[in-house]
Specification:
Blueprint (H helix, E strand, L loop, with lengths): L16 E10 L2 E11 L4 E5 L6 H8 L7 E6 L2 E4 L6 H10 E4 L11 H13 L3 H14 L15 H13 L5 E5 L7 H16 L3 E5 L3 H7 L2 E6 L2 E6 L1 H6 L4 H10 L1
The structure holds adenosine-5'-diphosphate and magnesium ion.
Magnesium ion (MG) binds next to helix 1.
Length: 259
């Protein structure tokens, strides 16, 4: 695969993500406790930690699938402060800037692959059907799935479905991509295809936050590693450095479990 297969570098408008003092509870369960993370434009941050540590909630707070209780999230120049009602227009602008890929793909099962990728462009960007489908086909071709355009998601393998989900997000030209354990539901040999697409995106300069247990990917692709446990940041820094010499017992325990 040649470089910039997914996204030409000049297609990407870089945006950073700055999370400051973010907090979130579900009832009496404090899930995120004063989280601050800076993701530089064009960089990749890997987020790791045991199940239940708040990783998914953190990602969901960035595009406001969850409403934070306290703190601030800044994407590019757009600032979202907890406690202030977000006007619909701002919410849409934020969602346009931030693409998200889930563990379970979340494709529309009753739509063809082509419609899956075209429909959000029509709804969110107001593109014509012809224009949206043309872009969808271009992107599907770049990930080697053009021949699946008229299939339904159920007729595609898990790895293909996840690449379609990535393409669907990319079709909206996001400035930031969030990945929540994108390969956890996949067999390892299929996960590799998805990780290859993500690696290309990173090489093309996309700002990414990736929740993953794929330590090789984290070490080779991410610029920054954040270790979470129980709603806290346990440790953060250079990925290879932390993996070679974790400073915290919680990190050591987690790495022992996954490496
Ligand atoms: P992770 O992704 O690191 O496994 P999550 O962010 O999914 O962690 O969950 C963190 C904690 O928040 C868990 O205790 C989970 O049960 C709780 N939680 C997550 N989403 C909700 C929700 N919608 N309602 C209530 N509790 C939730
Ligand atoms: Mg999760």
């Amino acid at each position: 695969m040649n470089q910039n297969l997914i996204t030409e570098s000049n297609e990407i408008a870089h945006a950073g993500v700055v999370i400051e003092h973010l907090s979130k509870s579900f009832g009496s369960n404090l899930v995120l406790d004063d989280i601050s993370i800076t993701v530089k434009p064009g960089s990749v941050t890997a987020l790791i930690g045991p199940s239940g540590s708040g990783k998914s909630t953190l990602l969901r707070c960035i595009n406001l699938l969850e409403t934070p209780d306290g703190g601030t999230v800044t994407v590019g120049s757009q600032v979202v402060t907890a406690g202030r009602r977000i006007p619909e227009r701002e919410l849409l602008a934020l969602r346009r800037q931030v693409g998200m890929v889930f563990q379970s793909f979340n494709l529309f099962p009753h739509f063809s692959v082509l419609r899956n990728v075209a429909f959000p462009q029509e709804r969110i960007l107001g593109r014509s059907r012809a224009e949206a489908e043309e872009r969808a086909l271009t992107l599907l071709e770049r990930v080697g799935l053009k021949d699946k355009a008229h299939h339904h998601p159920a007729q595609c393998s898990g790895g293909q479905q996840q690449r379609i989900a990535i393409v669907r997000a990319l079709a909206l030209s996001p400035r930031v991509m969030l990945f929540d354990e994108p390969t956890s539901a996949l067999d390892p040999e299929v996960g590799v295809e998805v990780l290859a697409v993500m690696r290309e995106l990173a090489d093309a300069g996309m700002t990414m936050i990736v929740v993953t247990h794929e330590m090789q990917f984290a070490r080779e692709v991410s610029d920054h590693l954040v270790v979470m446990a129980d709603g806290h940041i346990v440790e953060e820094g250079d990925p290879a450095g932390i993996m070679a010499e974790p400073q915290e017992e919680r990190t050591r325990r987690f790495l022992n479990a996954v490496l």
